[in-house]
Each structure stands twice: as C-alpha cells, then as structure tokens.
Design a protein that fits this description.
The chain has helices at 31-38, 76-89, 153-161, 200-214; strands at 4-11, 14-20, 48-53, 60-66, 95-100, 103-111, 114-119, 125-128, 131-135, 139-144, 172-179, 182-189, 194-196, 218-226, 229-238, 241-250, 252-259. With 264 residues, it is α+β, with helices and mostly antiparallel strands. It has 2 domains: 4-119 and 251-259, Diaminopimelate Epimerase, Chain A, domain 1 (Roll), CATH 3.10.310; 125-248, Roll (Diaminopimelate Epimerase, Chain A, domain 1), CATH 3.10.310. It is globular. It contains 4 helices and 17 strands. A hairpin with a 3-residue loop joins strand 9 and strand 10. The protein has a 17-stranded mixed β-sheet that branches.
Length: 264
C-alpha cells in the first residue's frame, strides 16, 4: 500500500484522479486523504477522484468523490473518463455497462479518446422565473444569459449554490448562452466549490433546458462549447420527458504515476 498507482484523466478540461480499487488500495472513508490527493498545490490536483471497483453483472462500478473528499452524485465527464480508463486496462472494448451511484450506464468507445455515455431518463424539469432546475444524475440550476463573458461565474454561482432554496444539499449552477452553433456553458460545481472547465451533467442539463426554451419535441443533437473544450449531447424529448440521452466528448489520459499514500 506504500506506493499506490494512480492515473490522471481529463474530459474537456474536467480532470480526475483515478485508482483501480479492485484490490482495495484506498480507504474510501478517508475524506482528508481524498481531499489532499485532489489538492492542486499539495496533491496530484483534480476536480474529483474516482475508484474503479468490481461487481458481478457489470463490467465495473464507479465511485466518485468531489474535490472536498466527500462521495458525490453522478459525474458525467468522470463516467466517460472511467470508461476510457477501463478500456486502457483492457477490461472493456467498444461497448460496456457499469454501475454508478444513480444506476446503470451504457457507454460506447468510438475511438480511444472519444466516449459516449448514456445518461438516465429525465422526467421532471422545474421552471421558475429566470431559471430551470432538474436532476441529470446531479442537481442543476440552469439559467440562460445574453453574454456569458459578462457573468461572474464564481461569485454568482457560489451565491446560488448556497441559497436557501437549494439547501441542505445545494446545487450545481449553469450559465448558458445560445449561439448559432449550439450552446456555450459555464458551470459552478458544488463539492469543487469553484467554476470548472466543464461539467458533463451540467451541459446535459443545459441541452435539455434548451429544448424546453424552444418548446420542441423529438430527437436533438446539441453542440456544446465550454472553457475546456467541445462536447455533444444527444437526446429525444417526448411528452413524458427526456430519454435516450447521450453525453459525448473527449476522455484523455494525462499522466500516470505512483504516490506514497501511507506517508502522504
């Protein structure tokens, strides 16, 4: 246990420490350790940490922890990166199925650095005033703005994230600008407590809310631009809600190494 191998992955700038935990090399209850591993000055540095674990009936399971050390809800870009990692280990090939905190997910690996992840159905979207609220595996506040560059994502996102309306758990906050090419999205993530370069469940929420704004049914493919890169969201809107939702984008290995957890 003294030297634990880790991998660093990023999906559109959303970055993660990943550990193959099938031999139980990391204590998932050690919040302080996970927080330090994610620290950008005193650790490896990441928006979150994931453990790949084993379970009968699926290719693998995903346990996700926010940068604050606490186990989190579903992370879309993290899920795509974990699929790429499983492919790197030789556990899966072109398709796979894994279990996350919000249930089963299918995924397609179209090329080594591009992963398409099926998200769960969304049947409820609340619209109140100038914003939407929905759960795409994690809770998301979505508001449309005219000029994304003019928004102070950190301060305004923090204010909404901690507002009384969303307590005690809080919410992720997304600011979205529609463009002729698709959507530009900026996200303040709870658990990271900062703006991240992209958020998979957040851009998924933004795409679904765009269909609500336009009041359109049927199949859609939405191009997304974040500060970390380009993503795509594909879905079908029906009278019952949203189904066949796919989050698509890059998932790349950044580096790998060993860390002495015992003396960390």
């Amino acid at each position: 246990m003294a030297n634990t191998k880790f991998f660093k992955y990023q999906g559109a700038g959303n970055d993660f420490v990943i550990i193959d935990n099938r031999v139980s090399v990391l204590n998932a209850d050690d919040e302080a350790l996970i927080r330090q591993l994610c620290d950008r000055k005193f650790g490896i540095g990441a928006d979150g940490l994931m453990l790949l674990e084993q379970e009968d009936g699926v290719d693998f399971t995903m346990r996700y922890f926010n940068a604050d050390g606490r186990e989190g809800t579903m992370c879309g870009n993290g899920g795509r990166c974990l699929v790429a990692f499983a492919h790197h280990l030789g556990l899966v090939s072109g398709t796979c199925r894994f279990r996350a905190v919000d249930g089963l997910h299918d995924a397609h690996i179209l090329r080594p650095d591009w992963v398409e992840l099926k998200m769960n159905r969304v049947q409820e979207v609340w619209h109140a005033g100038d914003h939407y609220f929905l759960d795409t595996g994690s809770p998301h506040y979505v508001t449309f703005v005219k000029d994304l560059k003019a928004v102070d994502v950190a301060s305004e996102g923090k204010r909404i994230r901690w507002s009384d309306e969303f307590q005690p758990s809080g919410t992720n906050v997304n600011f979205v600008q529609q463009t002729p090419e698709g959507l530009n999205v900026a996200t303040y993530e709870r658990g990271v407590e900062a703006e991240t370069l992209s958020c998979g469940t957040g851009v998924t929420a933004a795409a679904l809310c765009m269909a609500m704004e336009e009041d359109k049914m049927g199949k859609r493919e939405v191009a997304i631009l974040t500060k970390g890169g380009k993503l795509e969201v594909k879905f079908t809107r029906t009278a019952e809600g949203f189904e066949d939702i796919w989050l698509c984008g890059p998932a790349k290995l950044v580096f790998e190494g060993f860390i002495n957890i015992k003396n960390f």
